[in-house]
Amino acid sequence: MDDQFEYVNCLICGKDDTEVFVRGKGPARIVKCRNDGLLYLNPRPASIRVRDFHTEYVRNDNLDMFTLFRREVLRREADTIKSMKSGGNLLDIGCATGTFFENFIGPTWHLYGVETSPLGVELARSRYGVEVFCGTLREVGYPSAFFDVVTILDTLYYLPDPRAELMEIKRVLKDEGVLAIEIPGLTYTLLRDRGPVCWALDGKWSRMSTDSWHLYYFSQSTLSLLLSSVGFRVVKAIPEQSSLGRRGVARTLNDLHFALARLLFKATAGRFSIAGKELYLATKMK
Ligand SMILES: [Zn+2]
After folding, report:
1. What is the 38 CA–ligand 1 centroid distance (Å)?
2. Which of 21, 5, 7, 38 is nearest to 227 (CA)?
3. Cα–Cα dist 186/223, whole Å
4. What's the start-to-end Cα distance of the chain, in Å?
5. Residues 145-189: tens digit of each pLDDT
6. Ligand 1 centre and the CA of 14: distance in Å?
7. Span from the CA of 226 to the centroid of ligand 1 (angstroms)
8. Are 28 and 41 in contact (CB under 8 A)?
9. Which fold has domain 47-207+236-284?
10. C-alpha 218 – ligand 1 centre gap (Å)
11. Which residues of 214-231 are buried (b: 16+ CB within 10 A; e: fewer)?
């Protein structure tokens, strides 16, 4: 086995009982756990390579991805959080260039960020004056029960060990604190990245790649299982819109899709989501 790759057991059940879900050209596979349905990359790029990828994630040539394309979604997500908490210490993990902080400027919030890309750290600090640590959450060592809100937006599935990350979040979050997690919608990903929709938009039958840094593909069910195994309970799930990068017809389709996703989500009381992104709000179990 190439030492550029490593094998891992299922994050939820700890076992190695899977079937191949997507087979790629290289050694990596997307596999599905037979016990709980978790989809994950296995084998996957070795942790050291994942760290290199994270360090170079924010670059001068992709800044729009973290600012322009995300601003509207992040504003809505911030509004949801502000409806639950009126102020306090807020930590954004994987804050990139800090766009999310725009929504919390003022005397009631004390803002903290964690980001592995030096360019992201530099921009978040200079634009918003936020205390941003360059590295990972577990390297910082924040005091216990320090944060009122911890957010990890469009980031959890890139991490080699989401369980360890969630345990550290639980330690630094106050007992009454709120955890907000944004992930790509799994149903959307499977509809969009394979089959006729993919062919119509990208001219190929599948763009679900095993040559990827996307280590986990959480669903509402597998994310809830993981959260509850760490001691969190999901209190709210909200459909969100995928990145707003494309213009013209693609943007109109994105808006229409989001409107339909919201309708379906509401009509099925959150049981069925085709949204591009999903926001989960969780609190500590008592
Ligand atoms: Zn499993």
Report:
1. 6
2. 38
3. 11
4. 45
5. 999 999 999 999 999 999 999 999 999 999 999 999 999 999 998
6. 6
7. 10
8. yes
9. Rossmann fold (3.40.50)
10. 12
11. bbbbbbbebbbbbbeebe
The secondary structure element, H or E, covering residue 283 is strand 277-284
Residue 36 Cα to ligand 1 middle (Å): 5
**Any idea which residue has 């149903």 for tokens?**
187
pLDDT in tens, 22-75: 987 888 899 999 999 999 999 998 887 888 888 888 899 888 888 888 999 999
CA of 45 relative to ligand 1 center, distance in Å: 20
Report the distance separating Cα 243 and Cα 65, nearest Å. 8
- The predicted model gives 178-204 an average pLDDT of 90
Distance 157 CA to ligand 1 centre (A): 16
Distance 217 CA to ligand 1 centre (A): 13
Contact 246, 254 (CB under 8 A): yes
For residues 35-73, b (16+ Cβ closer than 10 Å) or e, as one string? ebebbbbbbbbeeeebeeebeebbeeeebebbbebbeeb
Evaluate if pTM is beyond 0.85. Answer: yes
Residues 181, 210 contacting (CB under 8 angstroms): no
User: Structural domain boundaries of the chain?
Assistant: 47-207+236-284
Q: Where are the alpha helices (DSSP H) in the chain?
A: 47-55, 71-84, 118-128, 137-140, 162-172, 186-192, 196-202, 220-230, 249-267
Q: Calculate how far, in angstroms, residue 20's C-alpha sits from the geometric centre of ligand 1.
A: 13
**CB 178, CB 283: distance < 8 Å:** yes
